[in-house]
Design brief:
3 helices, about 80 residues, single chain, flat
Length: about 80
Amino acid sequence: MSAINDTLNSAGSILNDVVRFGIGLGGAFLVAGILFDLGGYNIVTNVTNFVTQFTSGGLPGLITLLLIMTFMRRG
């Protein structure tokens, strides 16, 4: 049973590292998009559209957005 737990912990750790890297990369592109023109790709508009999808949903959308932000902070 210990081997299964070790395997799941290792897989969870790797997945956590990949997600953290993706969030960091997204943050770097967001800052670069604000400071510089990135050409055809505009992450600022994409993030704005993503948040707008939740906020246009009213209170349930805002609660969902807060839950997503809470889970992102835990990692």
